Every structure is written in C-alpha cells, then in structure tokens.
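A reminder before we start the practical. When you read a complex entry, don't treat the lines as separate problems. The point of joint prediction is that each chain is placed relative to the others, so the output describes one connected object in space. Small molecules and nucleic acid strands, if listed, are placed in the same frame. In the example below there are two entries. Take a minute to note the order of the lines before looking further.
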Amino acid sequence: MKNCEYQQIDPGALGTSNTRTSTTLPCGRKNSQRPRRKWEVFPGKNRFFCDGRIMMGRQCGVLPLTIGLILITSGLFFTFDCPFLVHHLTVFIPVIGGVLFVFVIITLLQTSFTDPGILPRALPDEAVDIERQIDNSGSSTYRPPPRTKEILINDQVVKLKYCFTCKMFRPPRTSHCSLCDNCVERFDHHCPWVGNCVGKRNYRFFYAFIVSLSFLTSFIFGCVITHLTLRSQGVNGIIQAIQDSPASIAELVICFFSIWSILGLSGFHTYLVASNLTTNEDIKGSWSSKRGEESGNPYTYNNIFTNCCVVLCGPMPPSLIDRRGFLPPDDAPQTVTSDTELPPFMSKNDANMCTQGTKELLESMAHSSVIQSTCAPGTPKTAPVSQESLLHTISITVSPPNRPPSTGCSGHQALRPIDVSCSQKGNKRAALHTHKPMLRVPSPPCSLGHSPIILSDAPDMGFIPLN
Amino acid sequence: MATEFHNLQELRHSASLANKVFIQRDYTDGTICKFQTKFPSELDSRIERTLFEDTVKMLNNYYAEAEKIGGQSYLEGCLACLTVYLIFLCIETRYEKVLKKISWYIQEQNEKVYAPRGLLITDPIERGMRVIEISVYEDHGSSGSSSGSSTTSSSGR
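Here is the predicted structure of the whole assembly.
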C-alpha cells in the first residue's frame, strides 16, 4: 500500500503529469492484466501453441502435406494390404508397420514442435557493450560495427559474423534463418516438410524421422509388391490383382516417388552425422579443401563412431528462449523503472529499505528470485533506461530506432489487444521521461520495459551530461 | 510520507546501477559453453581478481560437466532414442540438473562475494548463454563522489 501512495506522490512532487496511472494499474488496486508469458512477446517469426509448450515456424510449409501423405499411405496399407498379408504370411507385418508408423509420426511431431536451438536476441545493453568494444579497437568516430570477428577454434581460424537482427556476434555454427527470423545454434537447414528449422536441439529428432520414414517407405513398398505378387500368382493374373486391390497402386506410386528422395536424404544426413557437419556448412563448403586453404572441420572428432554418438546421443541442451516464463507484471517493475526506480521487491519492504544501505539491498536482491524471473531475453527492442544516462551511443548504435513499438509486442503470431496497449504505454513512458530529467533511473539487473521510443529520446534527456 | 519519499529517493540514488560488465564466451575449444576468464578492467577496483576468476572457472567446470560426452550421456541418448525421445518429457536431463546447480551456485556467490562488493551476477541462462552479465552498483551513500567517478570512467573509455 505504501508503494501505491509513493507512486502517487512521486509524480506530484515533481510537478509532472503521471499518465501511467491512467493506463497502468498500481499494486493494491485492481489488476485486470493477467501476467503474460514470454512467448507472447517473442520477436521471431514463430507460432506458439498450448500456451507456449509447442512452437513451430511461422510458415508451416508443407507439414500438413507431409502428415497427410504419411497417414494416407499408412492407412491404405493397414486397411487393404495387411489383411491379405496377415492371412498369407505373418502377423508381424502390421506389427512392424505399426511400430515404424508410430516412430515416424512421433519424431515428425517432435522435429516440428521443438525449439531448434534458437538464440534469444541480445538485450540493448549487451548490444551497446559490443559496439563499445568494437569502437575501442578503432577510431572514436562512429562507424558500423565490423561484420566479422576471427577466433581460433582448435587452432583453426573461424570467422564469427555479426547478426544485425539479433545484435550479437553469432557463435560458431550458428546461422540466422530468414524464414523464422531467428539465430539458430548449429543451424542445419530450414525444412519446409516439417515446417521448422533443424538445429542443435532437434537434429536428432529430424534424423530419426528421416531414417524411420525411409524404413517405413521401404517396408510398405516391399509389402505392397509382395501383396500384388502373391495375388497375381493365382489364376487371375496381375491385372485382376490390381483390380482387386486398387489402393495398392496408389501406395506404390507414392512410395516409389518418395523412396528415392527419402533414402537419398537419409544417406546424406548419415554422411553429415558421421563427419560432424551441418547441411549449411556442407553446402557453403566451409571446410572444403577445394578452397585451397588448409582448412578442415574443427568440430570433428576424427572418428565416425564418436561423431555419430556426439551428434545423436550427446547431451540434450535446454531451450534458451524460456517461452513459458512469465514477463514481469507491467505495473510493478515498469513503474519501478520509470517512476520509483526501485528494484521490484523493494515495494514490499519499503519501510525497512528506508534505513538499509546499498549492500544490504544487494544482498536481499541476491536472495530474491524475482531478479532471476524478470529477465526477458526475448524483448530486444526495449532499453533499460539507466543505460541511456551513461551510454551516449545508444541512440545512434542501437538500431532500428524508428521501428514502431508495436513490432516488439506483436512480433509473434498471437496478436492481442495487450500489444496495442503495450505500445501506448511505451509512448506514454517516453513522454514521461522527457519531462523528468532529474531522476536517475537504476534498473534492476534484468530490466524490462516496452518502451523502445525512449531510445530515440536519449539525447534529449537532461541526464548527467556525457562528453 | 514526505520523509519516506525523501529517504527512498536517497536510497534510490544510493542504489543506482552504474554499469554492466559482460563476460563473453570463449570459443577456443569449440562450441562448448565456456566463458572468458580475462579479468575486465571495469571490475578492477571492485573485486579481487582471484575471486572473479574462481567464479568463472567454477561456472566453466559446471558447464563442461553438463556437456560432457561420456557414459552417462550416451546412456541417456540411447534410452531416449529407444523411447522415441518421449523420455525427455518425463525425466530431467543431466543438463537441466546441472543448470539448477549453476543457479544455486550463482545465488550463493552473489550472497557471499558479489553483493557485499556492490556487484550482481546474472545467470547466463537468462541471457541465452551468450554472456555473464555483472551489474555494477554504486553506493552513493557510502562514497559521495562515486557516481561522478563511475560516469567519468564509463565516458572516458
């Protein structure tokens, strides 16, 4: 309650109009905004389902076709071919077919719905720090950051590229997928058949999918051939056999055309797994000896078995984008960052905090789990306001300053009214800042605010002058 | 109320975030998660070099343990393959267990070492494992000119 009164006093004491009280809801009053999860503000082009549990690329590509083909072919097989084969051969045929079918469907869904290894975009203060390091190494005048940085990996020079979208130097083997608008670790390729990128976290699912699909296709193909052969061995001949079981022809056609590409793809990816390469590297010829330089793959273990084990059975890295984490409530920390400039937990203990020094403050912040949970790596277009007072380059180096604020909120597929109100808040908070130059604004360690417009207002603020 | 406001404002000024230091990744051993142990100059006056290096080395050891390729990870991988990877929905992988240990370790380090020195480490997982973010706070209540010195040092860089 004291915090609420403090918020009311603060703008009045400074003689400014606090438009936030009309739009945000201070604590203690009614809070009609439900806490939002991070997937709702994810900047990449991805779709999220089941409240963030399932994700895929925005363009699902031909995934419905893939699923449809598999279901239709398998359905026809189990309906028309299996009864004959069970009667004439063995009951294990539908059993094996069923196991393969289940493998295929599960691995396909896992490939499609798993985070491929998306790297969250760099927060603005990180981006500014990188820019500052680059500037330090050269002249003091502004120039665009260099696109590459060379590092040594296993005594081999590897160039790291700077991603202008994600505002960071991409780690090795990471690539930016333009379809999904994300940097993906160990980027293999964007597969339209599964409607998702294939990267570090879902490569093993993808490989299992194509291998089991090649087994399933071959199995169905073989079974259909056997079925037609057995039928035609009767008195009636092949034509009658086809007339008795027309579905088999459809299966034959589908399997015949898909078996070449699926088997080819499986073979290609088996080669990639054995040499610890990605499709991206292979196509670009990153480690090809044709370049004339002495370059080999620095990531290979020079042992086929080890490479296979590492790629397919290595530890499963966690998802870095934390899609189901909660964003900090719009009122508490954002109000804190712009008006009260206190870390979120202080609103609860303000009576004690009045008499505590900074060190006790920091120790209790270290205890607080709020700090850990209020980080939102998926919101790159926001700026911790404190940095603007200290880092004068933010207005010119953090791009794009002119992007409309609603992009940051509605970059995902689920457009909600909250996104509109979020951009409104950003505008109002920017106005608030231009009127309150006297306040220094310490942000919590993981600051968050839907206020990209502040970036462009930075030079106008009467903060501690720099240079 | 006015007194409270004044004290809170003082505290606000005395608990201001001065700077953030980012420890970048070290890719010399490949794509494994490892952070540079080079001591940043911004922390020169705030913390002893050995304490900082011990923290980063310990974190690197934890990450190496999480990503270690050995018997246990192969077993986990093969079991996952046999269960069509559905086992990932049920059990906590070794990586996740080590990440919890890392969170606990960072919290402990913050409480014992960094917060008393006006610093705060952010868990790298919150930053997509790109950087270790160390927030540097200035205590204006105890050192009056520290705010000026912090901005001078940051602008003079």
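Discuss with your neighbour: The first strand of chain B starts at residue 16 and ends at 24. What might explain this?
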